């Protein structure tokens, strides 16, 4: 009997330890598998949303006292200086809410009640993809949790909240299969390459558990751009991780930047980055905020001198910019709007644009909407570029990767209201000496760090830049327009390393309007300032070549939905397909 009792005890002991081993193994395996094995072996890989606090709204959608079926989730929330950006994710079959149906909801962090402390209408709602939206809400009082709701469905659960001053916010896989990560918070110096060995890139769902993320080498780091070696498992699972895997940057021995940067892949990623023939000879990229009333003239004019493709990075516009771009696209212009809500990131936006344009554009210019390329010779832009690069290379036996064009700064020219015929005709008085330059670059010539200071990029060692003779090409920069337009520059400057005009910092910068100080107060003599020489070169050419001879209207003054072309042209058939060769007068 004693022997049987001892065996009974030993059996239960062995069973206990066996059961404990099975349970611990299951827990370990289960925790590891969701962040690694499911990713590695191609199973569905989804982000885990963590709520800032546990309240009834964080676990169910609240409509009065009764929860309703979840229609959307707030994937991420970013607190910008003067507004809040919320990224919404819908089920694939769900109907997306309109701006009128959504509300910005502000909940008390300390009060567990689901009753909203405040509700406001969103400033804007943009559809990014078929099942995703970007909602811009006004900043609320401190200490409030911000989410969205609808009048019919109640309040939706809040998503994880991030502060803008420390964040990885965008990520693209380049043609060479490296990952380019765009970050805020490293505070690196302008135009300096930093020691990459002090950092590493991390890929995964939850960066608070470093044992469960993939790590990779940082190849270069400069300003706010980090280039990483992409893990092979990420490249091989491209289709599965496109909207799931996030990327961030970790300081070795320190912390990891919070991240909302989900991997994006270029359409030609992994292919030859230098195709024999690209679709477009000349393209233009810009970053703009509330430039709807000037965008039509800017696009149409540059189309008439030979630009074929436009990339518009919309930096939190709340005017009709999206509608103007849509109308231009419908009229036949190859133009796209890229939502770029990130404040003071013009350098990063231009680098992002250069990556996107690499497979499509032989040359791409980076200019603002108040800047117009003027070709005094009457040639088209691609002809000027071809002449510049062929002449230089025949003598120097080097490759030209960047063309730098001098900028003439125009003043109000005696006007007090926005000119009806457009800026190219209305403003005719400027400063004598050029201010700075802008660049037209060959995307594959850019240094891998993608360093730029808005006006030009750093190039690879086997490429050089050239300065263009102002008799061949200049930029007419309508910098100091009528006060109604000029005062908008006091809102915020878009460049990272440029102080806002309202700040006392760097008051003497060339970016500012001399003599204005830090307050948007119109000087009595504003309309006559910055006028040292009369220059009607571009005005004359625009009126001669682009005005309708019947009514003298310019293309951007009409409501036509057809693509504009010069009124005076020479036409000839060059192949079986009817083609036209235009020559400006």
From TrEMBL:
Keywords: Glycosyltransferase, Membrane, Transferase, Transmembrane, Transmembrane helix. Its EC number is 2.4.1.-. One of its GO terms (cellular component) is membrane. It is found in: Membrane. The chain crosses the membrane at residues 12-32. One of its GO terms (molecular function) is glycosyltransferase activity. It is a single-pass membrane protein. InterPro entries: Glyco_transf_92, Nucleotide-diphossugar_trans. The keyword Transferase applies. Belongs to the glycosyltransferase 92 family. This is Glycosyltransferase family 92 protein. It comes from Gossypium barbadense.
């Amino acid at each position: 009997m004693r022997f049987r009792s001892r065996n009974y005890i030993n059996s239960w002991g062995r069973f206990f330890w066996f059961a404990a081993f099975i349970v611990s193994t299951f827990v370990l395996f289960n925790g590891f598998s969701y962040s690694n094995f499911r990713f590695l072996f191609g199973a569905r890989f989804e982000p885990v949303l963590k709520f800032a606090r546990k309240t009834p709204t964080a676990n169910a959608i609240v409509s009065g006292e009764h929860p309703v079926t979840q229609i959307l989730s707030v994937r991420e929330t970013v607190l910008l200086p003067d507004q809040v950006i919320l990224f919404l994710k819908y089920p694939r079959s769900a109907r997306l809410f309109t701006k009128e149906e959504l509300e910005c909801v502000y909940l008390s962090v300390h009060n567990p009640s689901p009753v909203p402390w405040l509700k406001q209408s969103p400033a804007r709602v943009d559809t990014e993809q078929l099942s995703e939206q970007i909602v811009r809400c006004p900043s609320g009082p401190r200490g409030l949790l911000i989410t969205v709701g609808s009048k019919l469905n109640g309040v939706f659960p809040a998503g994880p909240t991030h502060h803008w001053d420390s964040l990885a916010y965008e990520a693209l896989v380049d043609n060479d299969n490296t990952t380019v990560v765009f970050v805020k918070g490293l505070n690196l110096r302008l135009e300096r390459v930093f020691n990459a060995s002090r950092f590493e890139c991390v890929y995964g769902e939850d960066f608070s558990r470093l044992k469960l993320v993939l790590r990779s080498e940082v190849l270069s780091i400069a300003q706010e751009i980090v280039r990483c070696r992409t893990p092979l498992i990420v490249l091989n699972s491209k289709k599965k991780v496109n909207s799931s895997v996030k990327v961030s940057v970790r300081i070795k021995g320190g912390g990891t930047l919070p991240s909302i940067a989900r991997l994006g892949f270029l359409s030609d990623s992994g292919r030859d980055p230098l195709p024999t023939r690209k679709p477009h000879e000349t393209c233009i990229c810009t970053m703009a905020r509330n430039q709807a009333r000037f965008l039509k003239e800017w696009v149409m004019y540059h189309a008439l001198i030979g630009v074929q493709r436009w990339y518009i990075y919309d930096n939190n516009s709340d005017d009709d910019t999206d509608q103007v771009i849509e109308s231009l696209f419908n009229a036949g212009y190859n133009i796209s709007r890229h939502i770029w809500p990130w404040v003071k990131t013009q350098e990063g936006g231009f680098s992002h644009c250069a990556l996107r344009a690499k497979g499509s554009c032989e040359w791409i210019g980076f200019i603002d909407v108040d800047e117009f390329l003027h070709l005094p010779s009457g040639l088209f832009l691609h002809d000027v570029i071809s002449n510049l690069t062929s002449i230089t290379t025949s003598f120097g036996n080097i490759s030209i990767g960047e063309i730098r064009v001098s900028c003439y700064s125009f003043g109000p020219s005696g006007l007090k209201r926005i000119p009806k015929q457009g800026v190219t005709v209305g403003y005719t008085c400027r400063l004598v000496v050029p201010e700075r330059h802008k660049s037209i670059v060959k995307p594959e010539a850019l240094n891998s760090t993608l360093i730029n200071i808005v006006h030009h990029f750093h190039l690879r060692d086997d490429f050089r830049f050239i300065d263009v003779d102002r008799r061949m090409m200049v930029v007419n920069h309508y910098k100091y327009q009528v006060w109604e337009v000029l005062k908008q520059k006091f809102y915020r400057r878009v460049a990272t390393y440029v102080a806002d005009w309202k700040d006392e910092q760097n008051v003497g910068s060339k970016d500012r309007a001399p003599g204005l100080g830090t307050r948007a107060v119109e000087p009595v003599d504003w309309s006559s300032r910055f006028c040292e020489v009369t220059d009607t070169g571009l005005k004359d050419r625009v009126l001669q070549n682009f005005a309708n001879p019947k009514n003298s209207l310019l293309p951007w003054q009409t409501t036509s939905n057809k693509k504009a072309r010069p009124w005076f042209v020479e036409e000839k058939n060059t192949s079986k397909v009817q083609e036209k060769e235009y020559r400006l007068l």
